[in-house]
C-alpha cells in the first residue's frame, strides 16, 4: 500500500518532558509524500517542523505513531532508513574539525565509498555547487550561503532517495536564496524526492508541488498550493485594528460583500470573495462610531490567507 | 519482482557495511589527530617530562634525594604512575571534550549520528578511538620517563607479564574512555572547567602516581579512600607488571576493579550516550 510512497507518517506524536509537564511538539501528524515529489511543510516558529523532520530522519524518537521512509519503519529499521536519506538540518551540522572537501569525503566513506571514490565524489559535488575554490577552507570560514550549499552537497554524497531540508534558506540574503532555489529546482528536475520545511510563503509557493500547512504540531491542510488557494484561502481578508470603543458588528455583518466576519477585542476581520470597497466601508464604519483605526490591511488570496483562514492568526516572518 | 536474499547473507552484508562505516569514522579521527599531533604530543608529554626532569634529574643532582618511601628510586616509582595517568587523562579527554561540544550545539552530533550505523556502534567507535589516543599517549610518555634522569638514578623497568600488561593497558583505557563518555553526557558544558579542577587534578594527585599504593599503609583511611579513584588501578596494575620489584596492590584487586569498572562504566556510558543522541 505504501509501496510507491517515499514518506508515510501516521499519528506521529512527540512530547518532551519539561518543567511544566509534558510539552507536545507534534500531536498526531500524518502525511504522505510520493516518489519524485517536492513536498513542503509550512508552519510558523515552533509549529513542530524540525521535530517532524527529526522523527522522519530517525534522530528523534516518536512518542507515538509510526512513520516509514521508502517503506522502511523509522524506528525499527533506522539504519536502513539512514542509508536512503540525505538531511540538511536547520543548524550547522558540519564537522568543524574537517575542511569542506573532507566533510564530503568522509560522508562518502561513512556510506560505504572507498577512499578514492569518496574523494572523486566530493570533488564532483563541490564543482557542481560552485564551491570548488572553497574545498580546503575550514567550516568556520564559510558564509551562511556557502554553508548551506556545503550541507546540501554533503547530504547528496551517497545519492539518497529522499532529501530532507529544514528551513534551508532561513537567514540567507535574497540572492543566496534565489541561488538555492535554483539548486533545489535542478535536483527536483532530476527526479529527487524532496521534503522541505519553511516559514517563507513565497518559497513554499514557488518550489513545492504539495504543501502541508502545520501549526501546533498538527496538519491543518494538505494539498497543492493552487488547490489550497482556491479552496481554503480563496477569499480576500480585510483586517482593521482599532481603539477607542466597540465596532458596530451588526453593521459589518450587513455589508453586502462580507462573506464571513471574525471579531476579537480591538480587531475586526472580514473574509470576502469580492473585496471591492470592503476596506473603505470598514474604515467609514469605524469613523462613524468614533473609533481610531490603528492598522488596516487587505490580503489577496494567497498562502497567507490560507493560513489565516485555518488558524485565525496572521503568519508573520 | 522481489528477490529473496537469505537472511544470513543479508546480516553478514550489513555487518560488513557497519564495519566499513566504523573504519571510516576511525580514519576521520586519525585524520584529525594527525593534524593536531605535534601540539597534542607536546601537551601530553610536558607534564610527565617536567616531573621526571625535576625529581629524577634536578633533585638528585642538587642532593635533594631521588629515593622514594621504600628506599626504591623515585624514578622507578614514577614510570608506571606517569605512563598510566597520562593514558587515563588522554583517553578521558579524547572522548569528553569533543563529545561535550557535539552535544552542546544544536544538531552537531548529527554529522555522524546520520551515518548508517546504530547509535551503539557510534558510541563504541568513540570509545575505541579514545582508547587508541590513550595508548598513543602512553607510548609518547614511556620513553620520556624512562630516559630522563640523572646518572645512577635511572628507573629499573622490565615487562614481567605480557598478557597482564596488555590487559591492564586495554581495560584501563576502556575504563577511562567510558568514564569520559559518561561525564560528557551528564555534565553541563559550562562546567567543563570544574571537571578539570574537581575531577582530573585530584585524580592525578591522589592516583598513586608519585607513590605506591602499599606505601599508604601508614594512613589507612587514605589507602581506602583512594580506591574510589579509578586511576589507581591502572597505575598499580602497570606498577605490578613494569616494576615487579616494587610492592603493589594485589593483582586480583586491580584486575577485578579494571574489568568490572570497564564493563559497568562502559554500559552506563553507552546508555547515557544513546539517550543524549536520540532525542
Ligand atoms: N529538545 C527539545 N526539548 C524540549 N522541547 C523541544 C525540544 N525540541 C523542540 N521543542 C519544542 O517543541 C516545539 C516544536 O519545535 P520545533 O523545533 O519542531 O519547531 P519548528 O517548527 O521547527 O520551529 P522553527 O521554525 O522555530 O524552527 C517548540 O515548542 C519547541 O520549544
Ligand atoms: Mg525548526
Structural write-up:
- With 317 residues, chain A is an alpha/beta fold.
- Chain A has helices spanning 49-56, 78-84, 100-110, 115-128, 144-156, 174-189, 201-207, 225-230, 249-254, 278-288, 303-311; strands spanning 5-18, 21-34, 38-42, 64-69, 72-73, 85-88, 162-166, 193-198, 210-215, 218-224, 236-243, 260-264, 267-272, 292-299.
- Chain A has a six-stranded mixed sheet with strand order 6-7-8-3-9-10, sandwiched between helices.
- The relative contact order of chain A is 0.13.
- Chain B has 279 residues and is mostly helical.
- Chain B is 73% helix and 0% strand.
- The longest helix of chain B is centred in the N-terminal third of the chain and has 31 residues, at 74-104.
- Chain B is elongated and about 70 Å long.
- The model of chain B has no long low-confidence stretch (mean pLDDT 85).
- The interface between A and B is medium-sized, with 33 and 28 residues.
- Magnesium ion is lined by residues 49-50, 90, 166-167 of chain A.
What is the straight-line distance between the termini of chain A? 38 Å
> How much helical structure, as a percent, in the residues of chain A?
25-40%
By DSSP, the count of extended strands of chain B is 0
Chemical compounds bound to the protein:
adenosine-5'-triphosphate, magnesium ion
Could you give the order of the helices and strands of chain A? EEEHEEHEHHHEHEHEEHEHEEHEH
Q: For this structure, what is the CATH class of the largest domain in chain A?
A: Alpha Beta
Tag the structure with descriptive keywords.
heterodimer, A: 317 residues, alpha/beta, Rossmann fold, Alpha-Beta Plaits, 11 helices, 34% helix, B: 279 residues, mainly alpha, elongated, binds adenosine-5'-triphosphate
Amino acid at each position: 500500500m505504501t509501496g510507491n510512497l517515499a514518506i508515510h507518517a501516521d499519528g506521529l506524536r512527540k512530547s518532551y518532558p519539561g518543567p511544566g509537564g509534558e510539552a507536545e511538539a507534534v500531536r498526531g501528524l500524518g502525511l504522505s509524500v510520493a516518489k519524485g515529489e517536492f513536498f513542503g511543510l509550512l508552519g510558523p516558529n515552533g509549529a513542530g517542523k524540525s521535530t517532524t523532520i527529526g522523527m522522519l530522519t530517525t534522530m528523534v524518537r516518536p512518542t507515538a505513531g509510526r512513520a516509514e521512509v521508502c517503506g522502511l519503519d523509522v524506528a525499527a529499521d533506522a539504519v536502513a532508513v539512514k542509508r536512503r536519506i540525505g538531511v540538511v538540518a536547520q543548524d550547522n551540522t558540519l564537522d568543524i574539525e574537517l575542511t569542506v572537501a573532507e566533510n564530503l569525503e568522509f560522508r562518502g566513506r561513512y556510506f560505504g565509498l572507498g577512499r578514492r571514490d569518496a574523494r572523486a565524489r566530493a570533488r564532483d559535488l563541490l564543482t557542481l555547487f560552485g564551491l570548488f575554490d572553497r574545498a580546503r577552507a575550514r567550516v568556520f570560514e564559510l558564509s551562511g550561503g556557502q554553508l548551506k550549499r556545503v550541507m546540501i552537497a554533503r547530504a547528496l554524497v551517497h545519492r539518497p532517495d529522499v532529501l530532507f531540508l529544514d528551513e534551508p534558506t532561513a537567514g540567507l540574503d535574497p540572492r543566496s536564496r534565489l541561488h538555492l532555489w535554483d539548486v533545489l529546482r535542478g535536483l527536483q528536475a532530476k527526479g529527487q524526492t524532496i521534503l522541505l520545511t519553511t516559514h517563507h510563503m513565497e518559497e513554499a509557493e514557488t518550489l513545492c508541488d504539495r504543501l502541508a500547512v502545520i501549526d501546533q504540531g498538527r496538519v491543518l491542510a494538505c494539498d497543492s498550493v493552487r488547490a489550497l488557494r482556491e479552496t481554503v484561502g480563496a477569499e480576500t481578508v480585510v483586517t482593521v485594528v482599532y481603539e477607542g470603543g466597540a465596532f458596530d458588528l451588526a453593521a459589518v455583518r450587513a455589508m453586502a460583500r462580507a462573506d464571513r466576519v471574525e471579531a476579537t477585542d480591538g480587531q475586526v476581520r472580514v473574509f470576502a470573495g469580492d473585496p471591492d470597497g470592503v476596506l473603505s466601508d470598514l474604515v467609514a464604519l469605524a469613523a462613524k462610531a468614533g473609533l481610531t483605526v490603528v492598522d488596516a490591511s487587505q490580503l489577496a488570496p494567497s498562502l497567507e490567507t490560507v493560513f489565516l483562514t485555518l488558524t485565525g492568526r496572521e503568519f508573520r516572518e | 519482482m522481489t528477490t529473496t536474499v537469505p537472511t544470513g547473507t543479508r546480516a553478514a552484508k550489513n555487518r560488513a557495511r557497519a564495519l566499513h562505516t566504523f573504519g571510516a569514522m576511525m580514519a576521520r579521527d586519525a585524520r584529525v589527530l594527525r593534524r593536531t599531533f605535534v601540539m597534542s604530543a607536546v601537551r601530553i608529554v610536558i607534564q610527565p617530562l617536567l616531573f621526571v626532569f625535576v625529581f629524577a634529574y634536578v633533585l638528585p643532582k642538587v642532593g635533594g634525594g631521588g629515593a622514594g618511601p621504600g628506599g626504591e628510586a623515585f624514578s622507578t616509582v614514577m614510570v608506571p604512575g606517569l605512563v598510566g595517568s597520562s593514558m587515563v587523562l588522554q583517553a578521558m579527554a579524547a572522548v569528553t571534550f569533543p563529545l561535550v561540544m557535539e552535544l552542546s550545539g544544536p544538531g552537531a552530533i548529527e554529522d555522524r549520528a546520520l551515518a548508517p550505523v546504530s547509535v551503539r556502534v557510534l558510541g563504541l567507535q568513540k570509545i575505541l578511538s579514545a582508547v587508541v589516543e590513550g595508548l598513543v599517549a602512553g607510548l609518547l610518555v614511556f620513553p620520556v620517563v624512562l630516559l630522563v634522569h640523572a646518572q645512577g638514578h635511572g628507573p629499573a623497568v622490565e615487562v614481567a607479564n605480557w598478557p597482564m600488561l596488555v590487559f591492564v593497558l586495554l581495560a584501563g583505557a576502556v575504563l577511562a574512555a567510558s568514564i569520559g563518555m559518561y561525564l560528557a553526557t551528564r555534565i553541563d558544558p559550562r562546567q567543563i572547567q570544574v571537571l578539570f579542577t574537581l575531577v582530573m587534578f585530584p585524580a592525578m594527585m591522589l592516583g598513586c602516581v608519585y607513590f605506591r599504593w602499599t606505601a599508604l599503609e601508614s594512613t589507612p583511611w587514605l589507602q581506602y579512600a583512594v580506591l574510589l579513584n579509578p586511576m589507581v588501578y591502572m597505575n598499580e596494575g602497570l606498577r605490578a607488571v613494569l616494576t615487579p620489584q616494587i610492592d603493589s596492590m594485589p593483582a586480583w584487586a586491580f584486575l577485578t576493579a579494571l574489568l568490572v569498572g570497564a564493563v559497568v562504566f562502559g554500559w552506563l556510558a553507552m546508555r547515557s550516550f544513546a539517550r543524549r543522541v536520540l532525542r
